[in-house]
Structure formats: C-alpha cells, structure tokens
Amino acid sequence: MTPQPVVYTAVPASDTSGVLSGRMGAWIVDFFVIGALWAVFAVASLVLGVLTFGLGWMILPVLWPIVAVIYSGVTVSGPRRSTIGQRMFGVELRTVTGQTAPFIVAAVHAVFFYVSISTLTPLVLLFGLVRADRRMLHDLLSGLIAVRRGT
What we know:
By secondary structure, the chain is mainly alpha-helical. It contains six helices and two strands, in the order αααβαααβ.
C-alpha cells in the first residue's frame, strides 16, 4: 500500500487581506498582556524565592520567554485560534488545512516568531509583504497561516 500524498487546501486571498497590519497591532497588545502575566508570575517567584532561600529566584531570567510561549501556545491552540491581541484585530491562526493548531505547533510557532523577530527585525515583515498569502517566515516553518476571523 503506497502512502497518500498530503493535499493542502488553498486559503482564498481574501481571507488574508489586511492580516499584516492586524498582526502588528496584535503583537503590541499581546506584549502588554504577556507583561501583565509575567508580573504576576514574577511576584509569585519572588515570594517563592524568599520561602526557598533564593532557589525560586532562579526562574526569573527565563520567566518572560516561558510565559510568552505558553500564552501563545494555549491561546492559539484554543477554540478561538488566536491570542487576545489577535482577537482584538480580527486575526486567527490555522493550519494550512484550516484546522486548529495543536498546542505544540502553536508553541513552536511562538518560538520561531520570537527568534525571527529578534534576529531579522524589520526584515521579518518582508516575507509577508512579498507573499500573496501574507505568510511570514515563522508561519512557513510551523505550517500555520494567519487569516481574518470568521472566514
């Protein structure tokens, strides 16, 4: 029995119109949401550090990336397929077949995003500007596509 080839359904171009500007606005909103979540966990870590004679403070240097990846993974893999910022700007992330992304794919997408934005800024936006489907490098690497909500 021969394996069947994977067939991807194309997302209509109208589904991706305006998502780049929405994604930029969503990133700003999500930055503040992640900052608020980080502050809660940082305070908890500081208290835990006092109770554990400083051992709880060891998580502080890596707390921001942990919170950001878990936040993105949980929200994008959830039923709304988007972070809080993406919901505010009418954007959602799907697999290229139109399904909801599993948690691990959404978390890896976030890792790819933060690595690409920290190393390629502002060149990371060029991928989205030159592609008809408006997918950026981290979208291509993780197999996700950003579309307008409700389409």
